[in-house]
Amino acid sequence: MSPLATYGYTPKPADIDPDATPQFSPIIARTETWHQPVCPSAYDCVRLVVPRSGSAILLSEFGEKPVKPGDVVLLGSNVLCGSDPEGHFTTTTVYLDTDYLVDQIFWQYAGVLQDRLDAQGFAETVYSEPAQILRVGEQRTGMMMPWLDELVALTIAGDYTSTFHRMQALWFSIVDVVAPYIRISPVRRTPTQRATTRPTLPRDRRFAPLRAEAAQVRDAMRADIAESWTLPRLAAMVHLSPKHLCRIFTETFGKTPLAYLTMLRVEEMARLLRETDLTVAEAGRQVGWRSRSRASDAFVQCIGVTPRRYRAMRSTYPRHQDQPTS
Q1: Exposed e or buried b for every residue in 139-156, given b needs 16+ CB within 10 A?
Q2: What is the rounded distance in angstroms from the CA atom of residue 101 to the CA atom of residue 287?
Q3: 93-105: pLDDT as tens digits
Q4: Number of domain units in the chain
Q5: Is the pLDDT of residue 57 over 90?
Q6: 21: phi then psi, degrees, rounded to nearest 5
Q7: Separation of alpha carbons 295 and 281, rounded Å
């Protein structure tokens, strides 16, 4: 719930000190207080949001739900979420690189997984609910506050390399409290299944840089969300088959190209409903949907409420504001 935009979500030390050397960090933590509604937005990372004081109404795929101290909000990568504070709302948010989390899942289930690529699919199957509110309780969230405060201090300092082990220890302590409350989909895996998957060593590690084709397709859709994009057309643009493009795009951004386009359209439609007097049908057409029902269905799927309900709730939004966060 912080305006972190470098590498999708990760701030650099240069954002804090202009003379600092940029440094990557797979873990970022920030504590902030909100007094105005926070526009629905998505990040290319996993977010763990811990309310500290106050309360808010959250909007996401789980619908319209209240959150307060004692709750923990888990948001998958590229999942839209917005909030409406009730007075004030103070949170600490931990932003986590998805590859970093996949590595942890691989080692957690190394006895039944073939390799890191197997872990990616396993994670997508087990953690199938991309937006969850976990009712952990104030006593347990209170245990995490010193760890969260230290994690925030370390990430603001920016020297990730020298504090790597301490930051990992803090994150492991936090997730140890939260993990029992995360809803998962049951999957039966046995060691014998390893022989029927990819014939590679179980410790074969395959990090891959951002595929240029996936980035090009993302940028094209972002540049013109109202365009009638189709998967074959996007694939032809980067000289890949539709199936191949769908695979590499999903591996990179956690959604298929057309699902990602839907997310972009809903985000822009929400802005139009907040900042203009366009009707729901007109706002839907402006972002690329010809059918009002299609626009409404997509909006409910991503934000959890109807466009009309969202507009009624969002009448207090300022007309102009900084980069939306959630």
Answers
A1: eebeebeebbebbbebbe
A2: 33
A3: 999 998 899 888 8
A4: 2
A5: yes
A6: -85, 130
A7: 8
The helix (run of H) or strand (run of E) holding residue 81 is strand 81-96
Alpha-carbon torsion 62, 65, 70, 72, what sign?
positive
My answer on whether 260 and 310 are in the same domain is yes
Domain assignment present for 204? no
Q: How many other CB atoms are found less than 10 A from the CB of residue 325? A: 22
**Residue type for 114, please?**
Q
Domain housing 154? 6-181
> In this structure, are 23 and 160 located in the same domain?
yes
Q: Which amino acid is at 261?
A: L
Q: Does residue 286 share a domain with residue 214?
A: yes
Lowest mean pLDDT among 102-116, 127-141, 187-201, 282-296: 187-201
pLDDT over 70 percentage in the chain:
80
CATH code for the domain in which residue 16 is found? 2.60.120.280
* 320 pLDDT more than 70: no
> 9-50: per-residue pLDDT in tens?
334 333 434 344 446 789 999 999 999 888 899 998 999 999
In a domain, 15, yes or no: yes
